[in-house]
Write a structure and sequence with these properties.
Blueprint: H1 5-8, H2 21-37, E1 39-42, H3 48-61, E2 66-72, E3 93-100, H4 110-115, H5 120-128, E4 134-135, E5 143-148, E6 154-157, E7 163-170, E8 174-175, E9 178-181, H6 191-198, E10 206-208, E11 215-218, E12 224-227, E13 230-231, E14 236-244, H7 253-260, H8 265-269
Antiparallel strand pairs: 1-11, 2-3, 3-5, 4-14, 5-14, 6-12, 7-11, 7-14, 8-13, 9-10, 9-12
């Protein structure tokens, strides 16, 4: 089937392809939310047909996801016994999740149709107020679907890329709330504040009620976040579009293997090529 972005995105409610007054008001609201919270949500960004199309596509490739069960800290690093026991880098949690990597989605499919819509990247760039913003160059991770099932969860963590854009496609029957601590390391690592979140002693945590079709813009490299455990037979699907401030950036080989079950030559060629010094 040939998809048209206008059939998938509610362009009447969100005129991202038209530089008019409604577009300007939308930008102001999104920018205000990002400045205040490090997060902005565009409710019902997708049409009902768009939600159904992405759900069907996710079902069709769900068997190709990489399911992993391990223990990880918020930074995806190894334990360092030289650090104090209460340091958040030594806080490890069970992680169980399933990522359907980018190489599973056809250029003609609905997910790529949305991502490749001529107005999509410029709108995201304008929302984030970045003069230079690039798609994540990782061939496994520029756009993926996170699939989570009964009992699975994604514990507190920071993202490798600076900005993450997600589309909620399908919720679990119960659970799966998205929780985050806005901008907790925007001015440094702030290990004490991170530890308070991990210990459930922080008042900085925000819980979001995301519904299928919602578009979320999130500064995931600066805001600690997690997905709560899921309940019920229905899997949770969330599409993830990743953007960074430097060109040609890809994930570390270790992270690619951990999340997608494989690493490509490009991951080894560009290992360590980052524009900041945050750990992960």
């Amino acid at each position: 089937m040939h998809w048209n972005a206008g059939d998938l995105i509610d362009l009447q409610r969100y005129p991202i392809d038209r530089q008019n007054g409604d577009y300007a008001r939308l930008l102001r609201q999104v920018r205000s939310d990002l400045e205040r919270d490090g997060c902005a949500v565009l409710k019902s960004f997708l049409t009902p047909a768009g939600i159904d199309a992405l759900r069907h596509e996710a079902d069709g490739v769900s068997r190709n996801g990489h399911r992993s069960f391990n223990r990880t800290n918020p930074y995806f690093t190894q334990d360092d016994v030289g650090l104090p026991e209460h340091d958040p880098r030594r806080a490890f949690f069970d992680r169980s999740n399933n990522f359907i990597s980018a190489d599973n989605f056809k250029p003609s499919g609905p997910l790529r149709t949305i991502h490749d819509f001529a107005a999509f990247d410029p709108f995201i760039c304008a929302c984030l107020q970045q003069q230079k913003l690039y798609r994540y160059a990782d061939p496994l991770a520029d756009v993926i679907i996170n699939m989570a099932e009964e009992g699975e969860a994604f514990p507190w963590h920071f993202d490798t890329n600076n900005f993450t854009v997600t589309l909620a496609i399908q919720n679990a029957d119960r659970g799966g709330a998205f929780e985050y601590a806005p901008n907790i390391r925007s001015d440094g690592e702030n290990f004490d504040d991170v530890r308070r979140v991990l210990d459930d002693q922080s008042d900085r945590v925000v819980k979001l009620d995301l519904q299928p079709g919602d578009l979320q813009l999130f500064k995931g490299r600066y805001s600690l976040h997690r997905v709560a455990p899921l309940r019920g037979a229905t899997p949770r699907y969330v599409a993830i579009f990743s953007y960074v401030e430097e060109p040609d950036m890809v994930g570390a080989p270790e992270r690619a293997i951990q999340l997608y079950g494989k690493a490509l030559p490009i991951h080894y060629e560009r290992a360590g090529m980052r524009g900041d010094s945050y750990i992960d």
